[in-house]
Each structure stands twice: as C-alpha cells, then as structure tokens.
Amino acid sequence: MRRLQPDDLGKLATPAQPAISPDGTSIAYVLRTVDLEGDRDVRALWLVAAAGGDPTRLTAGPADTSPAFSPDGSSLAFVRETDGIAQPWLLPLNSREPEQLCTFPAGVAELVWSPEGHRLAFVAPARDPRDDAEEPPVVSDRLDYQSDGRPRSTPRSPQLCVFDLRSRSIRQITHGDWWPRNPVWSPDGSQLAFAGSPHGDADRTGDMGVYVVSVTNPATPSRIGPRHGTVAPASWHSDGRTLFAVGCAGPSDHPAELLRLRDDTVLSLSTALDRTVMPGAPAYPGGRPQVTMDGAAVLFCARDEGCTRLYRVPVDDPSPSLVFARADSDVTGLSVSIGAARAAVTLTGPKSFGEVAVIDLVECEPREVTSYAASTLQGVTLYPRVRRAFDISDGTTVEGWLIRDPDAVTPQPLLLDIHGGPHNAWNGAADPVHLYHQVLAAKGWCVLIVNPRGSDGYGSAFLTAAHGGWGTEDAADFLEPIDTLVAERLADPSRLAVTGYSYGGYATCYLTSRDDRFAAAVAGGCISDLASFVGTSDIGHQFAHHELGGLPDEHPERYARMSPITQAADVNTPTLIIHGEADFRCPVGQAQQWFTALRAYDVTTQLVIYPAASHLFPVSGRPSQRLDYTMRIVDWLQTHVTGAVHK
Length: 647
Prior knowledge:
The protein is of the alpha+beta class.
C-alpha cells in the first residue's frame, strides 16, 4: 500500500462524455490521460461493451471529444481539435478510419444527429473578413467580447448549420444575431429547437430562451416557453409537441429547473425536489436530461447534499424520484439508449476518479464496466473523506468532510479548503483536481472541506443565503467548524491554514483580512476588489445583479464590506497568490491588486502567474502547470505552518 503522490497525475485516466448505442449494447466515451513528456492532456475515443469486457481504443486523439452514435449505430460523429480549432469528424465503426466532414475557419461545436441519420446539426461562428488579419483590434459594443478559455475577439454571431452526409453540403439555418446553442432535432427531423439570445441587450440581461426553426424552410425562429429568464432545450418528446428544457424562468440566482414546454404552457417537473438540475458544464458535473425510450419519463441529474444524482420524473406528473443512491458518488455524464431501457453514466466515488457505468432502468442499479482506478493507480490507497455536520451559532447546519490519517492521535495542522462558485459543492468522491489533499494527509495534515451557505444541493434558500453578502454571511460557516475541530483536539490552533480557488480564492482573501488565526494562506484564481471585478470579468455584470445585490455605484458600502481589498492593512497571514495570466473569469489584475496591497503592508507574500493559463487551468490546463500548482501549495503550507519544506 502507498499513498498518492503529486507525480501520480501522469498516471490518471478518467472517462467522460459517455454515449450509449441505440441498441444499448455499446458505450463510446472520451478517455482523458496525461502525457507528461509532451505536457498535454490526451483525449481519445474508446468503446466498451455494455455487458463489460476490455475497452477498445477507437481514435488516436489527442483532442477528440463529443462522441455521438448515428441513429442506426453504425457510425460515430465526434469533434477533433487541431491547433485550437474543432472540426466535425465521422468514424464508421466497420472501418475504424475517421474522416473530416468539412472545415470551418473558426471551428464547430455541438454535433447532433438528425432522427433519420442523414444530417448533422452544429453551431459555427459566422465568417468575417477581419478574421484574416493577423492581429485585428478587438471591437465590441457587447459585453461578450471575452469568455474565459478563449482569446478576446470582436463578437461574431454564431449560426446554426446542418451538414447533409449524402450531398456533403452545408446549409445555414439561422441568420442574424441569434447566438444559437444546444440544438435539438424534432422527432420528424423537420425542425430544430435551440437556445438563443437575439435581443440587443441580452449580453446585459442574460436573457436566453428556447426557439424553434424549420430546417426545410428556414424563417424567423419562434420563441416557445418562458418569455424571460435563462432557458436551454435538452430533449424533444416523441409526440413532436413537447420539449424539455433546463433553466430559470425568473432570476438566475435560483436553482435551474427541468421545464416541460408544451402548447404555450410551462410546467416545472423539478420544483418539488428543490434542487438544482445539472446539465453538465466544465468543472460542473451532470448531464443533459433525456427522455426514456417509452416516452413516459425524463431522466435528469440534480445535486443533492453536494452529490450529483440521477432522477426520474413522469412527463405529466411533477413528482421526481431518485433512480439510485450510492453514497458519495457523483454522476458526471449521462446518456440514454434509444432502443433499450439502459442509461450510461460516468461515476466518481470515494475510491475512483471516474468509471463508465451502465444502469438498467428497471433494476436501477449502476454496474461499472471500466476499472481505470484499479489499473492506473494499482497499490494506491486514498484517504477517505469523512462526512461531518457542523452546527453554526445562528442555527444553520453546514456539511463538511475531513481528509486525514484515521490513526492520528494528536492535534494536527489543519487546512481549510474553500470551493469555488460560489454555487459549487464538495462531496465525498475522489477528486483528481485537489491531489494536494492526499499529499498533505500523508504528511500529517487534516484537511477540512465545507459546503457553506451558497453551496449547491441544499435547496434554494440555502443556495441564495449569501446573495449580496459574500464573506459577511458565510464567514462563520468556515470559522466555527474550525473552532469545533480545535475543541475536539483534531486541529492544532497554532497551525491553521486556508486556501481556495475562484470564489474560494476570494474567501481566502476575505478571511485573512478579517481574521488573524491563520498561519498561512494560498489564494488561487482570487477576487480581491469586487468593484473592479464587476467591470473586468467576463461574467462580472451578471454577477453584480445575481450575486452581489446590484452595481458597485448603487451599493458602495456593501461592496466595501464584502471586498478584501478594503481591509488589506489588517492582513498578517503569509500568502501565496496563484493565478492564470489569461484568466478572464477572475482577471489577473485581482491577484496583482492583492499582491501589491500585501507587499505595501510588508506581509510575506509571493505571486505566481502561469503564462497563457485560463481560469480553469487547475482543471484542464497544461499538466506541468497543474503539477506545479499542487507542489507550490504543499511547499508553502509546509514552510509557513510546519516549518518543513516538501520533499
């Protein structure tokens, strides 16, 4: 038996994006591995039988994603990225020789098969002559000129297109500023539903609705469902008149719901659950809702107490029920077969960073058909996350987990790690992003992770409890659990540390500016000044309204109370600041402001900026940067808390 080490990053293999064949016998998926020598992640397509057995590699990668079976199961459409541009490819399963279908200068996204299997719908940015310039100026009258993970550019309205495999022709379905995404075919193949934001001020309001357009005779798309809010289509019922969508028909700071759209009526199928429906997104688990083969129900993912679980709800009865419950497991992908009562998911668990599993929708019990944890990390034993509940002095109860050596008998140095979001959540599943938890536990640390108010999976009231009160409303949710662990003699009060990324980086800065108990801090992807964040982040304007209670000039005192920078003079905690240079979500200036302020007040501090790294670099950045990130956190904490340099 051995414990996880930082360089085990190079051994990890994690499946994602499962696609089950129409007859339910096979599952295609993306396998992500790490090429340390080439300093890159490799994503290739693999195939495994639903009955189990050895998986077969289908493509070489290194950047193949989004597999989708043709309706007859004979081919896979997928997206291959080359030099940062994604193009549509087709793999006939009888030949195993993929071919590129067409070329778009700016690439494509979201390949979706038509019901008869002769066409593929996708979204592609519109062509603009300025794209030929080597370094054109960025010119915009919209707020969406930047999006984290992509170069800043003049906004180009993407268009919904259809590729005909028989004629090899491309037809543009939308024209104008519709900004389509999430295309879904109607059962007869005559229409496409999509999420659109055609209004001139949609970049300010965040409004996104469901639209339907004819494919055979395109005209102006018509909006169905909610007139306001943020809603995207997920699947179309076989009756041809019912669509299922995910979103909020009102303020987007409330949990996303599963909505049934039929005959100008909107019915929420998930309200009774009071949990956020999770369609899946980068750094967020879940999968797009799917209609079962008999058309009687919809399968969807929702987060409950930190874990993303699979639910079923009848199409005409808003009474969702849990499909299966496995302790501390996260559903990170979902697909449903058309011709068999089976679903394919990817699951993480306490001992696994991810496996492909098949669920019989009658028996409702997942059966894993891959075993990457056992094969890639043979002999490695993970410290478990032990669930705790902490009662806060105002009557709130928050859930948390401890990662530590269960045989430790003396108070340990403790690291509080704060998740991002703020509407994300920890759970008890193994986590490939935060490998330093395991490394520190092996060095005698106790790691505490807590879901404070604002975390997802505990109902809408809990989710919105810190709205307009970042830091001021949730600080006790972090500090009082530490007091509890100190009183229980699990944590040494003289050896406390705090870290976090994104919202967690903000909270790290906030806590060290308001509390002096921490011997060291690591602020990753942080926010230090909420007023400048609103004006520079790619989501700053929306966050001002949906998270912070209004614009900075409307509430200057509130922003001052919430912003770490206003009390930087009170910080004494040695602080490591880690940030991506190309971070547009929490712009790098936030880290620079915090670093400058701490240096001005002679606080021990260090700034680390990773070149060309976006906000999500700890999740999907270059392996060398992810490994360096892990090592620097361990080194800083060991040096400033225990006095021992990492070896």
